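just leaving the lab so this will be short. what follows is a protein written twice so to speak, once as letters and once as C-alpha cells for the fold. can you read through it and tell me how you think this chain folds. anything you notice is useful, everything is just below:
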Amino acid sequence: MKKFISLVLAAAMIFSFAACNADKPENLVNESTTSAENNNSAEKKNDMEFLSVYTEKAYEYETYTEDYYYLTEVNYQKLHLSEENKKEYPRLAKALDSLNAEKTEFYKDKAKELDEYASEQLDYYYEDGEQPAVYTANNEYFLQRADSVVLSIRSDADEFSGGAHPNYGYGGYNFDTVTGKELVITDVMTDISSLPSILSEKINSKDEFADGFFGNLEEVLSEYTAEQFNWTIGYQGVTFYFSPYEIASFAAGLITATVYFDEYPELFNKKYTVAPESCAITLSEWNDVEFDMNPSDGKKDTISVGLSYYTEEGSYKDISINLNGNEFTVEDVYAFSAEYYLVNSKGRYFVYLVPHGFNDYTNILIYDLNGNEIKEAGELDRTAFGSLVWEDENEDTHQAKLLFNNPTQFVLETTFDILGTYAADKTYTVNSETGMPESTDEFYTIDKSFPFVLTSKQAFNVKILPDMKTELIKAGSEFTLLRTDGKTYVDAKLDDGRECRIYVERNRTDYQLCINGIPEYELFEEIYYAG
C-alpha cells in the first residue's frame, strides 16, 4: 500500500518515464493482493448494503520562521468505518487501520524532510528581502463507492518542496469489503487486453488532451500491467487516472477516462456492476467527473464544482457548478473550503454543497440538475453531515466526518442554542422529487458520547416522561440533555435515571429562553453557548 508515496512525488518519480518513454512507470505499482474470496457479496440491488465511511483530519503539522512566516505545512486524512461496520467487516477495518498507520509514518517523515528543505531556502529569500515559500504536503480522500461488495476511494495528493510549481497526483484504493484485500483491475475487468485501445480512444476524444503525450498513447498504455493502472470503481463504471508527467506533459494536467459498464458489459465481472437505485459520490475541487444522468439520451455527462472569486478578506465568494459546459454560480457563500456531493436519488440528480466559512456553523445548499438548467432546491441552516466522535487510550478526542454516500438513510447534525449550544442529529432520506432531505424522526438526538449536563440553582417544575406528570425538581439536581424538537422542549435525564421534558419559550423582550416564565440563567448554574 505505497501508492500515496508515488502520488505525492509524482513529478520527481515519473521523470525518467517522461524522458525515455520506454520504461514502465513503476511508481504507480499497487502492492495489493488480488481478492479471491467473492462468495459473500450481494448479487441483487436489494441485497446491497451501504457502508458508513468517515474521514478524520489526522495530522496537522506546521512550522514558522522566527518572524512568524509559514515555513512548512503538512495535512492528511485517515479512514474509519462506523462501529457497526467494523463488526460486520473486520478484515476491511483491519486493512484501513494498516493504511492509516502507513500514512501516519509517511507524513511524519515527510514533515521532517520538508522542514529541512524549507530551512535551506531561508537564506536565499532573506537576502532578496522576500517572504519565504511555504513547503507543503497534503492528502485528501473522495469516496466513490462504499457497500457490501467494494470500498472505492480516490486519493488526491500534492506537494511543494521548491521549484516552478507544486506536484500532484491521483490514485485509487479499492478494497474487497468482505476480505479486506486490495483489488487490481483484473478483479473487476475479466479481460484488459482491449483496455489500452479503449482508454486511448476516450482520452484522445477530449480536445484538451489532444497534444503533449509521450509517444503513441495506445502503445504506452499497452505496457501497463494490471497492478499499474490507477482507478476507482463507481456504480456506472470504472474511472482511470493519469497524473501529470505520467503519460503527458505537466500542462495536460490530470487525465481521466471512465469506462462504463453498459458500454462494454462483456469486459466486466458482473459482481461489481450491480447498482443501487440511489447513491452519492464525493466530488473534489474543479475536477471533472463523468457520469450518465440519462441513459436513454445516448450521451454522457460531466460535472465539476469549485470555489471561485477570491476576496481580499481571504475567502472565496462564490461556488460554481459546471454541468456539461453550462455554468451556474452560487453567490455570496464566502467560504475557505467546501464539501461537494453528486446525488443520484432514484435516477434524479442533485448537488449538495457544504461551504465552510468564518464560523463553525455550516449550511447544506442543494441544487437540482434535472431539466434544462440548474435550479436551487433548498437549504438546511446550521446543519452538517454526521460525525463519529471518540476518545483514545490517551483521552484525546477524535472527530471524523461522514462521507455522504447513501441518500436513502443518512445522519445530519443540526446545531441548536437551546439551554446551551450543541449539535443534535436526525436520520434522513433524500426526496427524489425535490432533492431535499426529509426525516420521520420526531426529535433530534443529542450526542451521548460527551454529555451536556446542567445543574439547577433552584427548584422548578418539569414533565416526567413518559406519563408527562408535573413534578418539582429540587435545586442542585443534574440534567443530562438527551433530545430536543429544536423549538419548544429539551428532554433530559435526572440524577435518579428518570427522564423529563423541559419546555422552553423565548422572552420577547430580551430574547433569552425562559422555563415556566423564569429566565434560564436564574434556573441553572452555568449554560454554555458558543460565540
About this structure: Residues 68 and 215 are 47 Å apart (CA to CA). The chain has eight helices and 33 strands. Confidence is low (pLDDT under 50) at residues 1-44. The two ends are 43 Å apart (CA to CA).
